[in-house]
Amino acid sequence: MKIVTWNVNGIRARAAEVHKLLEREQPDVVCLQEIKASPEHVPEALCAIDYWSFWHGHKGYSGVALLLRKATFPGRPRFSHPEFDRETRVVQAEVGDLAFASIYVPNGGKDFDAKLRFLEGLEKFAASRRTARVVLCGDLNVALEERDVHVKLRKEGQIGTTAVERALLGKIIAHGLVDLARKFAPDDDNLFTWWAPWRNQKERNIGWRIDYVLASAGLADKARSTESLREFGTSDHGPVVAGFEVAPPQYQGAPEPAAAGQIPLL
User: Has residue 255 been placed in a domain?
Assistant: First the structure.
C-alpha cells in the first residue's frame, strides 16, 4: 500500500500535477490539503478518475480531500469529519479496520488561539483512535523539533515553532502514532516539506518540515519507506510518499456518503 499526502495550494491550479503524481506513484490513498475549492469547482477530470473521492472544501480557502483507489478498496469507504472541524480542514475515510485522515491545521498567523483549539481537537481525535489502525496525513503547520526548520529561518517564538504548538503535536503523536519520516531518517536535519516561494528557497532546500504521515504503531511496523518529493510540482509544499507492506482489508462497502456539506459527524 502506498500513501501520498500533498498540500497542493489550490487544486484548480495544480490539477494536471495531481494527475501526473497519480500516474507516477500509483498511490492507493491520496490526501490533499488546501484545495481552495468547493466540490462543484473541482476539475471534472479529477472527479472522473478511478478513485473513491471526497472533496471537503469551499471557494478560495482551506479545504481537504481524500482519494482511495477502487482497485485496492473495492468497497465504498465511509467518509466523515470530526465535530471540531469548522473550516473544512479534516476528512476521514474508514475502510474495514483501516482509517485514513487528511488534515490541514490552521497556520495561526491571523488567529493563534483558533490554531491551538484545532490542535486540541485533533489531540482528542487521535486519542479516540488510539487502538485503531489509522494513518493521519497532512499539513500540520508545526515544526516538531528545532531542526525541522532550516537554521537560516529559525526565529525565537515564531508561530509554528512555539513550545505550546510543539507540545500539542507531541501529545497527538503520543497517542500511539509514529512519525514515519523520522522513523526512516532519524538523523536527517534537512528533511523539509515546505519552502517559501522566494529567493530560490525550494531549489536550495531552505525550508520547514510541517507535512507528516503519522501511522499507528502496528501500521508503522509495516511501513517500508517515506520520501519528500521536493522537486515535484509548483506548490510551495512537496508531496510526501509512504510505502507499507499491508494487504487491503476484506471489505464489502458501506452506504453512499452524504452529499458535500452534509458529511456525517463522528
Answer: no
